[in-house]
UniProtKB/TrEMBL annotation:
Keywords: Aminotransferase, Pyridoxal phosphate, Transferase. GO terms for molecular function: transaminase activity. It is an enzyme of class 2 (transferase). This is Aminotransferase. Belongs to the class-I pyridoxal-phosphate-dependent aminotransferase family. Its EC number is 2.6.1.-. It comes from the Bacteria. Residues 57-370 form the Aminotransferase class I/classII large domain. Its cofactor is pyridoxal 5'-phosphate. InterPro entries: Aminotransferase_I/II_large, AspAT/PAT-like, NHTrfase_class1_PyrdxlP-BS, PyrdxlP-dep_Trfase, PyrdxlP-dep_Trfase_major.
Length: 379
């Protein structure tokens, strides 16, 4: 049930990006560290020709839960990578991860229902809860910037509809262990495991997935991040068997079918998954190492070292400025966009989230501008 009292849904980052768009012809090259997109392009490595017959064949609605061939390819992925036997019937193709989140929130919407999420979280979790009339309860982080698993049980009430777990996390790039995932899966309430950055760890040690618990819980993933095709809007939701009919009803109502050409292209890219992910991770690792080195050289304080994802966090807690105000000033004065921490957590913890998956050539000049601004205005 949609709430009738929807207010203040916008993010401070919206103001940052609106101002940033106005700076396009300011005479200084704009540097975007805000948007969570990767400069990696899979079509530099994979040729995907589409003919006129291909286009003509896919102008009708597709299957509500997605093309069977793509769902089978996703099942093969989990078999090969995690030795998990997944039925295609449990896979629903969605409009990116957001399409999956919309479907789940619609399914769990109930007056006075509650949802548990980490106190630092991907902002749409909180916004979707507000839209669908769910109340949020916030779990503290531990010293690794992961959700504190030991604190979760005390937040569960008779009104709890689900827990959302984002690992690797946005904004921190923190990763939960398989033991922590298992502990969360054993709490007796539905869990939504958001794993959109799962394939993008920075070491040879694979990032754990909650797929082995998906017979009881939900897995959300997307090709927007892993394959860097955010514009195609293709993600997926893995559901426990008993939820399949309800999810299909909700999905069919929300958008009937996900973009067919996007599904076809995603399936084609999946055939080159290992090579593309290796190249993407190599680019991210190279960019992260450069970002870390330049930050250190310029005296910029990093909050932590991310284990996966696209993001690093610059600590500005000691300068005495609201992160949203600071982010707006950066755009106005040095034409660099960042995402303020107040969008992720309240009260404002005082950091800026920067996307180092940007073009490599942006990293040093962008960080130099931030460093110069800090020295001129915050000391």
């Amino acid at each position: 049930m949609l709430t009738k009292n929807i207010t203040h849904l916008g993010l401070e980052a919206d103001k940052v990006l609106e101002l940033f768009a106005q700076q396009a012809n300011c005479g200084v090259e704009p540097i975007d560290f805000c948007l969570g997109i990767s400069s990696f392009n899979p079509f530099d490595y994979v040729d995907v020709p589409l003919t006129r017959p291909d286009l003509r064949a896919h102008t009708r609605y597709g299957e509500f839960n997605g093309q069977l061939s793509l769902r089978k390819a996703i099942c093969n992925y989990y078999q090969e990578k995690f030795n998990y036997d997944l039925s295609p019937a449990r896979v629903c193709i969605t409009d990116g991860a957001m399409g999956a989140l919309n479907a789940i929130f619609a399914m769990f919407a109930e007056p006075d229902g509650e949802i548990i999420l980490a106190e630092a979280h991907f902002p749409p979790y909180r916004i979707l809860a507000q839209i669908f009339g769910l109340h949020c309860r916030f779990a503290p982080l531990n010293d690794k910037y992961c959700v504190d698993v030991e604190q979760l049980p005390r937040l569960i009430t008779s009104k709890t509809k689900a827990i959302i777990i984002n690992s690797p996390s946005n904004p921190h790039g923190a990763v939960l262990s398989v033991q922590e995932l298992e502990a969360i899966a054993s709490l007796g309430v539905p869990v939504i495991f958001d794993e959109v950055y799962q394939a993008l760890g920075f070491t040879n040690q694979p990032v754990e997935s909650a797929i082995s618990f998906s017979d009881r819980h939900f897995i959300i993933n997307s090709f927007s991040k892993s394959l860097a095709i955010a514009g195609f809007r293709v993600g997926y939701l893995i559901t426990p068997p008993e939820y399949i009919p309800l999810i299909l009803d909700v999905k069919a109502t929300l958008n009937i079918s996900t973009n067919l050409l996007g599904q076809i292209l995603s399936e084609t890219l999946l055939n080159s998954w290992d090579d593309l992910i290796e190249k993407h991770r190599a680019m991210l690792t190279q960019n992260w190492l450069l970002f870390k080195e330049v930050s250190s050289r310029l005296g910029l304080k990093l909050l932590l070292e991310p284990q996966a994802s696209f993001f690093a966090n610059i600590d500005i807690s000691e300068i005495g400025q609201n992160s949203a105000h600071f982010a707006v000033n950066l755009v106005r004065d040095v034409v660099v966009s960042t995402m303020p921490s107040i969008d992720f957590q309240k009260p404002d913890p005082g950091f800026l989230r920067l996307n180092f998956a940007c073009p490599t050539t942006y990293i040093e000049p962008g960080l130099q501008r931030i460093s110069t601004y800090l020295k001129e205005h915050c000391q």
